[in-house]
């Protein structure tokens, strides 16, 4: 018999792993599985901290801020993943057009800057191709929209006072809730009377240095002449309004969100049933943040959510018209192939209805032709897709 004809040798009992050894190996693997899972979740959380923290703030940010929790997000410009004070921006005088981006609910500044290689990110591309200067704001989207609007008003005031040459032209771009924050800031800026005392007490003012703004003197005759390049500021509005040229509103629920309207209605119905389980569910639902609740009717002014009838089906709402002399670009998404149907009017891009995105004020056919409003509907486009779409970017690039 040749070697090839010999039967295969079977392992001896000494070579076989014992049942105990096989059992112990399996037990070790089972015991280490939860640890490996926790380790994976920890590493994922560390890698996507910029994603999970804004979600937490969007859901409960008002409660975090009230407790002075360290996880509460501060309203600030962002650069390289950190908060940057206005004096530390060190903006050059050129280019003179500065674009400020504001994210939506549960978002952060990274939505404008990073993504997959095949999706355009508007901030870096506009800075490279349009020759503009781009700044990114991060804010606690769980706070009232009016609170963030007032903070944006102060931040933009500080920006133009510190860098008058770099902000000769100001452009604001907001996605979803970010657009409402922009409109709210415009309201407070137009209501805010600027005088020497307020300009001197704006917080935080730049530290004395190259870009600092000198405090006005007490004696009127000592007032220095205005620079030829600096535009005169209207005394009854914030200084950044005279520099604001364009506002781009991407998927903004100008008339409120149908999702929050349904959530509020469900919570009210559960409370009306008035049994222990439904009261519990209603209480749980009402833990959502003030920012989310403001989306029900797009409350832009503090008096609206403070009104005794704020929870009514049709509560009183302050009219916030477009700012005069500003070009508005209202960009609306639609999941459907063709827009204009009742289904599109209600569902729109999946999160913002088409009718709400256009809004009464921006879609009013009685507005004069020089009102400075352009509306564009992007079909087959989701709410999040508006942030990384080649057609949307082409529109921004053309009109920027």
TrEMBL record:
Gene3D superfamilies, sorted: alpha/beta hydrolase
Task: Give the matching SUPFAM superfamilies.
Answer: alpha/beta-Hydrolases
What residue stretches are annotated with the AB hydrolase-1 domain?
99-320
Which InterPro entries does the annotation name?
AB_hydrolase_1, AB_hydrolase_fold
Where in this protein does the record put region Disordered?
A: 202-237
Which Pfam families does the annotation name?
Abhydrolase_6 (PF12697)
What this protein is called in its record is: PGAP1-like protein
Q: Which organism is it from?
A: Hymenobacter daecheongensis DSM 21074
């Amino acid at each position: 018999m040749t070697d090839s004809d010999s039967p295969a040798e079977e392992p001896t009992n000494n070579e076989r792993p014992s049942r105990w050894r096989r059992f112990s190996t399996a037990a070790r693997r089972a015991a280490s599985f939860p640890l490996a899972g926790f380790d994976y979740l920890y590493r994922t959380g560390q890698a996507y901290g910029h994603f999970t923290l804004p979600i937490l703030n969007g859901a409960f940010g008002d409660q975090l801020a009230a407790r002075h929790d360290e996880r509460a997000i501060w309203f600030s410009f962002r650069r390289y993943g950190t908060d940057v004070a206005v004096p530390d921006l060190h903006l050059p005088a050129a280019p003179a057009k500065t674009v400020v981006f504001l994210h939506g609910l549960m978002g952060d500044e990274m939505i404008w800057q990073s993504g997959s290689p095949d999706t355009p990110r508007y901030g870096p591309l506009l800075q490279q191709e349009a020759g503009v200067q781009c700044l990114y704001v991060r804010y606690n989207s769980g706070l009232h929209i009016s609170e963030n609007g007032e903070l944006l008003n102060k931040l933009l005031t500080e920006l133009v006072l510190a860098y008058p040459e770099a902000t000769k032209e100001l452009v604001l771009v907001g996605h979803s809730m970010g657009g409402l924050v922009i409109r709210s800031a415009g309201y407070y800026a137009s209501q805010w009377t600027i005088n020497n005392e307020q300009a001197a007490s704006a917080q935080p003012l730049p530290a004395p240095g190259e870009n600092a703004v000198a405090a006005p003197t007490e004696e009127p005759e000592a007032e220095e002449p205005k620079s030829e390049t600096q535009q005169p500021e209207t005394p009854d509005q914030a200084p950044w309004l005279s520099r604001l040229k364009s506002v781009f509103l991407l998927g903004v629920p100008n008339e409120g969100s149908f999702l929050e309207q349904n959530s509020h209605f469900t919570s009210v119905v559960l409370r009306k049933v008035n049994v222990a389980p439904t009261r519990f569910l209603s209480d749980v639902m009402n833990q959502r943040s003030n920012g989310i609740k403001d989306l029900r009717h797009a409350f832009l002014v503090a008096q609206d959510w403070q009104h005794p009838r704020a929870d009514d089906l049709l509560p009183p709402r302050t009219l916030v018209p477009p700012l005069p002399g500003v070009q508005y670009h209202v960009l609306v998404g639609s999941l459907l192939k063709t827009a204009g149907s009742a289904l599109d009017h209600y569902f729109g891009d999946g999160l913002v209805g088409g009718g709400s995105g256009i809004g009464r004020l921006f879609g009013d056919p009685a507005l004069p032709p020089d009102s400075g409003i352009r509306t564009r509907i992007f079909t087959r486009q989701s709410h999040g897709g508006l942030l990384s779409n080649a057609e949307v970017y082409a529109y921004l690039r053309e009109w920027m």
